[in-house]
Amino acid sequence: MKRLFASILTLSSLVLGAGCGDDDKKTENPPPVQPDGEKVNVTENITQDTTWKSGNTYTLTKYIFVEKGTLTIEAGVTIKGERGSALIITRNARINAVGTAEKPIVFTSSKEPGQREPGNWGGVVLLGKARINVSGGETNIEGFFSTSGNELTKYGGQDDAHNCGTLKYARIEFAGFELAPNNELNGLTTGACGSTTDIDYLQVHKGLDDGIEMFGGTAPLKHIVITQADDDALDYDQGYSGKVQFLVVQQSAAVGDRAIEASSNKTTATQEPISIPEIWNATFIGSNADPGGNPSQEGLVFNTGAGGKLRNVIVAYFKDQAVDVDGLASAALFNEVGDSRLSIRNTFFWDNANLTNSIPFAPNPRVENGVTVDPDVSKFNEAEKILVATNAVKTQDPQLTDALNLASPNFAPKAGSPALNPDNAATPPAGFDASARFVGAVGTTNWLAGWTAFPQN
Q1: Residue 332's CB: how many other CB atoms inside 10 A?
Q2: pTM confidence score
């Protein structure tokens, strides 16, 4: 590893000689010049407890696997990724990366500011031992050329409380890349992380594929910001059933597919565990572009038997669809009587596909040999099913401060916004912050301030 230290200049103190009335007058020592942090190239896998020190910069030169032990990353550390690199915490290891609002941990491109772009490096991967709904109960994570039989890329098991570690007050920028269709790395990828994993105050900005993808497991997400992802913002599948609270998603007009793509098992929709996370206090912001054209952009998409319970949510400015319940299996979850496994309540929809009094219909055509044999397989009319008084769902302007601003957004509601009226919100249950009696991710306190950033390049 290369260690480059700046020199420290010290100055000798000067003491004035005693003179008439000058006994207590001395020239104070100037403070020493602080050295620049150490610059370290990370070239080998980590096999024991290791600490990356505050103020230092660590550059990943390739895929770096933490095979054993705990990788501790102190507040203020910068981790840069070169092309073809990523940081992977295997299921026999753990991460302890705790920044602060004043000194966040930053994972970013090794290129200079102004030259950075999505896909410069591979992102962060956390692997665990919780349940996933694939055959055999374990598999290899996406994003690697040849992983069959590679223990370092395996995830899955039976421990739904497994702890992948802590990632707090951190940003992941310009990450993610596609090796092949359906084989991608994202800004943050988790595989089978359990409920004692702590992912809190995390921003993923300008990822080439998804912002965050959760492959099964039960890991909670809290105070999450996903901005300008190339594909989906939050993608969950393989039976993910974690608790999510305070989630912000923002699309740009140039890129972005779905704010949420929810899947369960692409082969057998009823395979347990089914993807059914609970999502409270979320703000999903589209690009406000006109409907049609490329890219197609949607808000919330549920397919292959995925569910989810969404409460106190804002869905605004998506150019094409606000909600798409895609396919018979997910529609069946929504149509369940009582506490259905797919439901949207206490939610504001606003200006999706330029509609301010409804939400657009999202048909699910069945096509065989290039011919549409059924224009709508699921027979699910989103507006009729979701905009129901008993769901406390409304088409109403949430009056956000500056949610469409890509360079310096503000997702807080303006004073007097209906989103701040507790009568429009449900009370979060045990396991969530019950004081969040507002609609959307941000109330009167802007928890994004200070540690988030929105660089163009």
Answers
A1: 19
A2: 0.91
